[in-house]
Design brief:
Blueprint: E1 2-5, H1 13-16, E2 25-26, H2 37-46, E3 49-53, H3 56-65, E4 71-74, H4 81-90, H5 92-100, E5 106-109
Length: 110
């Protein structure tokens, strides 16, 4: 499973995370910029991607429908690019366990 970063995150982040999470994508990479959460959800499900977002709408969708796709919910509000990168880097082991877990739908980081 590869991360799909939502529109509310920098399109530069997939390059930053390419070593830890090869194949990381941003919604822009998939032609989904400006598309609805529902279409992004369906795309992630159909392409075996994990959504990474700050958006609580994806959390609500995950509670309603479960997975796939899985969701990494970044509960950090507005922050610097460096703080976001540090959060992901410091959570790498937790993220890998979450990806491998067949039951868990949401990983909240913050």
């Amino acid at each position: 499973m590869k991360p799909l970063l939502d529109e509310n995150l920098s399109p530069k982040l997939p390059d930053v995370f390419s070593l830890q999470f090869p194949g990381s994508l941003h919604v822009r990479d998939c032609g989904l910029k400006g598309f609805s959460d529902e279409l992004i959800w369906d795309y992630a499900r159909d392409h075996d991607l994990i959504i990474v977002s700050k958006d609580s709408d994806f959390y609500q969708r995950s509670v309603l429908y479960g997975h796939p796709p899985k969701l990494i919910w970044l509960r950090i509000g507005n922050c610097t690019h460096a703080k976001l990168i540090a959060l992901i880097n410091n959570s790498q082991e937790e993220i890998c366990r979450f990806i491998a877990d067949p039951i868990e739908s949401v990983l909240a980081l913050g």
